[in-house]
Write a structure and sequence with these properties.
73% helix; mainly alpha
């Protein structure tokens, strides 16, 4: 009589010989007279099963969220890099740059700083219109 369990090659589960299986079933039947489940065994078992399922569901949701964030990052990073490359060309000049331009224009044209600032502002608006494609042909000819 062979009582050794044998590892099944295909599924990786233990295969038990017929004699050993009958012996185990006999011991379980005999233990039924001595082992008495408590009144709260069923609710505790159900709660444990619910907790296990809830944990599995939470893990799946967390995995999906992480995957979603990773996909969004992979999609948005190239778009942000492309948008940042446009940022330099779309940015307006700073106050210091506008003041320097106004001083330069006032000095070149021999006018007051107020008119230099006005001319610098008009030039800036014209450059922005060209950059944004809003300049009309009439504006470009002036």
């Amino acid at each position: 009589m062979n009582n050794d369990p044998i590892l099944h090659d295909d599924s990786g589960e233990w295969e038990i010989s017929g004699d050993l299986q009958m012996l185990i079933e006999a011991k379980v039947r005999s233990a039924s007279r001595y082992v008495i489940p408590s009144d709260n065994l069923r609710p505790l078992t159900l709660q444990a099963a619910r907790d296990y399922c809830s944990d599995k569901r939470s893990n799946r949701m967390l995995f999906k969220m992480i995957l979603g964030v990773a996909v969004c990052c992979c999609v948005l990073l190239p778009m942000l890099e492309k948008a940042s490359s446009f940022g330099g060309s779309l940015a307006s000049p700073s106050q210091e740059e506008l003041e320097e331009r106004a001083i330069k224009i006032a000095h070149e044209r021999h006018v007051g700083i107020e008119w230099g600032l006005h001319e610098a502002f008009v030039q800036m608006r014209h450059e922005q219109a060209i950059r944004f494609g809003q300049a009309t042909q009439q504006d470009l000819s002036q």
